[in-house]
Amino acid sequence: METAVFIVCALIVLSGAIGVVMSRNPVHAALSLVATLFGIAVLFLNLGAQLLAVVQVIVYTGAIVVLILFVLMLLGVDEDEDLETEPIVGQRVVAVLIGLVLAGAVLAVIIIGKDAAVTGAHSATAAISPTVANVVQIGQQLFTTYVFALEITAGLLTIAVVGAVLLSRRPKDLQPIPEPESMTEMGDDPLTVTTEEAAH
Amino acid sequence: MADEAALDGADATDSDATPEVAPEELFGTLLTHSGGQLVLHPSRETYPALLRTLHEAGYFSIIDLCGVDYLTHPGRSGVPASVSTERFEVVVNLINHQQRSRLRLRLQIPADDARLASAFDLYPGTEAMERETFDMFGISFDGHPDLTRILMPEDWPGHPLRKDYDPGRIPVQFKGAPANR
Amino acid sequence: MIAAASSIAAATVSGDPLLAGHIDLVIVLIVILKVVVIFGLMLVATMLMIWFERKVVSDLQNRVGPNTAGPFGILQTLADGIKFFFKEDLKPARAQMRVFILAPFLTVVPAFLLFTIVPFGGDFSNGHDGSVELFGHTTYLQLADPAIGILFALALSSIAVYGVMLAGWSSGSKYPLISSVRASAQMVSYEAALGLSVCSVVLVSGTLSTHGMVMAQAGEGWFSFIPHWNIIAAGVVPFVVFLLASQAELNRPPFDLVEAEQELVGGYHTEYSSIRFALFFVAEFMNSVTMAAIIVTLFLGGPAGPAILGPGWLWGIFWFLLKVLAFLFLFVWIRSSVPRVRYDQLMDLGWKVLIPLSLGWVILLATYYVARDQHWNGVITIALGAALGLTGYGLLRFAIGTSRVKRLQGVVE
Amino acid sequence: MTTTHDAPINLAQTSEGAQELSSRDVIAGAERLRELGAVLRLSESEALNAELEQTPDEETMIINMGPQHPSTHGVLRLMLELQGETVLRCKPIIGYLHTGMERTGETLTYLQGPTNVTRMDYAAPLFTELAFSLTVEKLLDIEVPERAVWIRMLMTEMNRISSHLLFMATNGMDLGAVSMMLYGWREREEALRFLQEVTGLRMNHNYIRPGGVAADLPDGWRDSILRLLDMLPPRLDEYDVLMTNQPIWRERLQGVGAISTEECLALGVTGPILRSTGYNWDLRRDMPYMAFDQVDFDVVVGSYGDCFDRFAIRLAEIRESMKIVRQCLEKMPKGDYRIQDKKVTPPPRARIDESMEALIHHFKIFTEGFKVPEGEAYVAIESPRGELGCYIVSDGSPNPYRMHVRAPSFVNLQTLPHLMHGNLLADAVAIISSVDPILGEVDR
Predict the structure, then answer these.
(1) Which domain range does residue B78 map to?
(2) CB-facing half-sphere around the CA of D36: CA atoms within 13 A
(3) What is the pLDDT of residues C44-70, one digit of tens each?
(4) Could you report the per-residue pLDDT of D174-205, keeping only the tens digit for each?
(5) Does the structure's ipTM exceed the value 0.90?
(6) In a domain, B35, yes or no
(7) Domain-embedded: residue B160
(8) How close, in Å, is residue C49 to chain A by CA atoms?
(9) What total number of domains does chain B contain?
(10) Which of B116, C70, C164, D17 could disulfide-pair with C75, CB 3.0 to 4.6 Å?
């Protein structure tokens, strides 16, 4: 049963991954990514890591790919991209080379390491105990053994957010025309502020 | 018969009397009265300058601008004798909110050169009205930013409010529908 | 689709005693029976919900509403469904056809799946654990009770957005496109607020399982139930946040920007017709029912309630339906009385109010529990925590105010 | 008749191609001035040089709102250039309801005229009838009887109430307050019921005619009005709860679509939009016609010129109109409801049975119409949407030589590009609604 689920999911994951690369339409590529992520979530389930599976769906399919699609739609990149021109010269050759090197590395690890590298164990760090709840195990691991890594990751993400905000700020924003002075006298009513704020 | 004679007489005295009284003027333009309202009769050339004067005098709004085609009624009333009448007239209604007064301009536009300076620069509110007048009478307005048809379809032939325009001859156009008239 | 759900549920099941031991044919049949019953009930409930909404709205608006098909017009939805089924299915020429066809199913499948984790009956009074006897087996009156229960609901609602987004995008039309852009931003924003308010509940209940939550909120007698409810135990704040965020998540007024008729014609389903449109319609109302059920489970004790006479599980169903109906009425009431908010106001509400509020509340609750476990002085800890939270919120408001002033100055210069 | 008709019509040519927003890089100064409504604020050279949102075209989207759209109040079509959800430019395109009513007016007699003009502003039909009738009466140089004047005032104010109630309904609907739509219509229906009692029709009454009104007020009209006047105030208070004091409602409208007095005057805008900028101008009070100088009412003005002010002004104007209606009720004089001038007024029904002359006269006045002295006249009244003027040129025949109606909505629509600039798409809907255009009047 587990094997059957694994084979089906692996097929979904792989075909999704190929779809991401091969799709000419960026939205189709993003959808293929969803298939891959979903397949991985089911693989997590298959391994008994329920929490990870759900988090995978919530965070990756539910938030990240949605954001990717959001950007795609907002920018209206719905036409087929021109594949003839390469933004960076020779990037395809380099990409193929790097891909081959990575694949070779993975193969090498499997071949050299034999059973030692691919043990079939549920997890490389801690075995999932069937009796203790999933959430408890992950929580304990995260906040004891890996608390430093967790904090570093949090810090990294915060820095990334701040950086993104800084980058997206435009020093000279829209420059609308100043509002003309109205013939009517604007009182000291607090409403004045709202009016002007919203008018811009 | 007696009535007719009396009427003739009245007419005669009227036409006799007009040259004696100097024509009334306002803002350097001929002025007449119509139903209690002031009517000015500027020429096409003096129109832009008059508008500027009026704007300074507090006539901040052109409330209405429309055309009239006097093709079948050339002897119109209310126009002073010194003004030579033309086929078209553009009637502009201005309002002075401070003095609560209205002013009407009647501009004579000849049929062979149906054009007038646009009031858009001073009175942007005439944008749609001038377009409508163009659409309906074919009077073009120099200096109008976007003088296209406004009520009729883009490619409509003719100007429907001209008196020599025969309504009903042109089939109503729906895209793709055969013209069956 | 339900079969798929049950296989996931079976793989993740933890609580249901039915699946604890050896699984034989009877148990499989019981599960299938549950699936079929829930599927049918959901369809009927959706039908009734559409009728209920139209009827209540029309009452609130001084008009009659559906009154011809069946008694009180109750069959109106059925008639509409039949009509939709026989309507011509228009396919826009510029649509991305495969995605266009897929999108309605992407909305309707999560809507069905969502109900699997809702406990809708059972006797929770006097210490009973809500289990019932069915063909000689003990089971819960809910399709699945995975350990990660409520997270499953969040995951499904985050998938549900795909249907809306892709429908809008694939239509090849501009209004639906704007709608799907709105949908994606809105869903991602309110998912966060939704999740954070669920966090408070999880903290209080100590479990992610929906059955466990209902158990935690059960009590004895008539009025001992109510103090256990999370609406009180977790404070009112998470409840309010969840209620608001769920309205946004459901695209219901006043947060129905995605299909704001006055602005975007029909929103994402502008180009849809016939049964495909009906699927969106069904999914939307089904989600309303399910969301009401989830609110009831999270905050009002689900089916837990006193059993007076007769079988307790029937009382459980009765209490559950009563609470759900109350919420459905509330939804309809809100819909008929408030104008729609604007897109930027919606985002402001989500990011500047609801998310900081629910985050602060989670931290405050956590502080309280830590203080209790460590035997600190509860009052002082809470006061400190609250003061810190308020300071943080004040700083946030200040920052927002400053940025607004700066923006205005930049505009003026 | 002329060569224009002989020109073959190429149906394939029928396109609205030229009615497009011009591309951003070919915008001339005047074009930019026009689209921003900025004539008053920037000189042409400044506008050319100013770096006004030089957005590349890829980031903007042109969207057609209308002519079939739920919130464009009929067949208004707006071309919006959007950047995200922000409206950069807007171009109203009208004419979809153009039926040549001004031309039709030239073929109808003065007595038939009101049936034509009443179809222009279909939400406030009595006002167009009134403007037409007043103009004709001015050309005829006649005074209508006192009672007719007061009946006209009563009826138009009732019509103003119903028109503003319709605005309440549509404004609510446009902002998503669906219940408000039905409440507004419910109350409007009550007002229309009274109009129907008097005129026989809910809309397009053809009630106010040159020389007076079509019929006297029916029995029991006082009770109907009093019932209405009792019913409306609590309902209006309900609107305050539902809308005026609703935080979401205020958020949606306050500060949205602001316009200044100068801009309004330059654009020729009148009515509630002008008053919302704080400009104290109401033709009923400032250039009184009929007997408005004898009634006591307030002219409601706003302060900020935004959508909320326009909404609040209209709500307050309902209350003011009710005040006027109440005064009409008290001051309604006895007498004739139409002028007893044989030239203008058809003989009473009873006389037709007795007198051959009356029958002939009746026949003549309805077939041939009455002749109006040569001349031209412009009369303006304050309709619910602003100054409604009628300009008639008479050549002495029974038909107007030229009939032109200055429709307030037609002019007010010009504010849309200015009001919408820089606002969100959702605000665009609120702005259209707050301008309250009636397309029948715009296109005529």
Answers:
(1) 24-142
(2) 25
(3) 888 888 889 888 888 888 888 888 887
(4) 888 888 888 988 899 999 999 998 998 888 88
(5) no
(6) yes
(7) no
(8) 27
(9) 1
(10) C70
